[in-house]
Design goal:
It is built from eleven helices and two strands, in the order H-H-H-H-H-E-E-H-H-H-H-H-H. By secondary structure, it is mainly alpha-helical. The protein has one domain. The chain has a two-stranded antiparallel sheet.
Length: 294
């Protein structure tokens, strides 16, 4: 740098000023490029998150009321079923269609509606990025998945020595959509009076669904009855979390049903594993404690 010190002071000042300007310009260009790139990525990320959240809220809102009403109807039937042993549901194939049989037909109808709105809500939200969803929405979707899985998870029945190789007491997931088509006309869910005509004339086509209920025995080791009792408890918690005031179950009534089920549910271990696997351990904690408490 000796040559530089030997230069005239004014020339030194010009060189220093020029170099400084170039450095500032270069640094500014680099900073601006990084900022613009980062800012664009940030903007795109925020826009993506906003659009995904908006879509998710819209799809949940579109189905939520239907699902709540359907779960409420199914919940009422499960309450009724827990209180009566009149065997209104036990209709053999030979006697099918000989009487009105409102109870079993409406039971199947409510179950299929329950499945339909569960599957539709899941299907309508499946293409949306739910990793950016709010906690409340994630919980809602957890219940949706749980409603479907409880009737298809054969591991739930392990304590009753269930042979998982045959679907005598559980449904295959791929069959669920086909089952719900019996209550659909295009995309419209048909009314019960329309369904009555269909179910009367299609016993063989709906055999698996019908006999899931007609063959239930009022015995605590009945596999299907155990699943329905567990499903009932999940329905109660779901409605208490997301339902309207009139759809919620008061604490004293929850104590009544958990006290009843405490000695009757024979798949408590499997149910606990299922609830944990469904990521609903926190939400179901109080209920699980009540039915497992000695």
């Amino acid at each position: 740098m000796k040559w530089f010190t030997e230069l005239d002071f004014k020339i030194q000042a010009v060189i220093i000023s020029s170099v400084t300007s170039l450095l500032i310009f270069g640094l500014g260009w680099i900073i601006r490029a990084i900022y613009e790139r980062t800012s664009l990525n940030y903007k795109l990320r925020k826009e993506y998150q906003f659009e995904q959240k908006k879509k998710l809220k819209e799809e949940i809102a579109k189905n939520k009321t239907h699902l709540l009403n359907t779960v409420e109807e199914f919940n009422h039937r499960l309450w009724n079923f827990s209180q009566h042993n009149e065997n209104w549901h036990q209709i053999t194939e030979e006697n099918w269609g000989k009487t009105q049989q409102y109870y079993i037909k409406s039971f199947v109808y409510r179950f299929l509606k329950f499945l339909h709105w569960t599957l539709k809500t899941e299907n309508d939200t499946i293409s949306i990025d739910t990793t950016i969803a709010d906690k409340n929405e994630i919980l809602f979707l957890k219940y949706i998945k749980t409603f479907k899985d409880i009737f298809t998870d054969a591991d739930l029945l392990e304590e009753l020595n269930y042979d998982k190789r045959h679907n005598t007491n559980h449904f295959f997931k791929n069959d669920l959509i086909g089952m719900t088509k019996w209550i659909l006309e295009g995309e419209r869910v048909i009314d019960f009076d329309e369904f009555e005509t269909i179910i009367e004339m299609n016993y063989d086509g709906m055999r698996e669904t019908i006999e899931y209920f007609t063959k239930i025995q009022h015995a605590d080791d009945d596999k299907n009855l155990n699943i329905l009792r567990c499903c009932h408890l999940i329905c109660i918690q779901f409605l208490n979390s997301f339902g309207h005031d009139y759809q919620k179950t008061e604490e004293d009534k929850i104590r009544t049903i958990t006290e009843l089920y405490k000695g009757k549910i024979k798949i408590k271990k499997g149910f606990k594993i299922f609830v944990t696997k469904s990521k609903l351990g926190k939400e179901m904690k109080n209920v699980m404690c009540k039915i497992t408490k000695a």
